[in-house]
Design goal:
Four Helix Bundle (Hemerythrin (Met), subunit A), 3 strands, 9% strand, 141 residues
Amino acid sequence: MGLLGFAFDPDYKSMTLNDFKPLVKKIKKALGEQVKEVKASTRLTDSPSCIVADENDPTAQMQEIMKSMGQAGMPEIKPILEINPNHEIVEKLKSMTRKKSFDDIALLLYEQALIQEGVNLEDPAGFVNRLNKAISNGLAW
């Protein structure tokens, strides 16, 4: 059993990006309108997820800068969440069956990617609660 109490498949590295399509769809459903899209990515190495901007959209950091400069009336631009199919957390998420736990971990992956981009979370208290629950579940072995 791994940190979050889920069995880990040691053969996960032999899977293809197509093997992750159902997971990508499930994460998109969990995150809903918070993201434009969810993609499995081969460019991530250490992180389980990252936020990227669509080709013609400003990055999350640029949006934050524009907001801080008082750029009012900017349309909300939704980021793309990329997940790392070779990361242990993503692999474990693939085998999760409890919807509430899955949704919480999917949201944590999104929020940590936002934090890495320097974005202030809309609900830091909710983030801390979800993180504490994940840590507590991981310690319950």
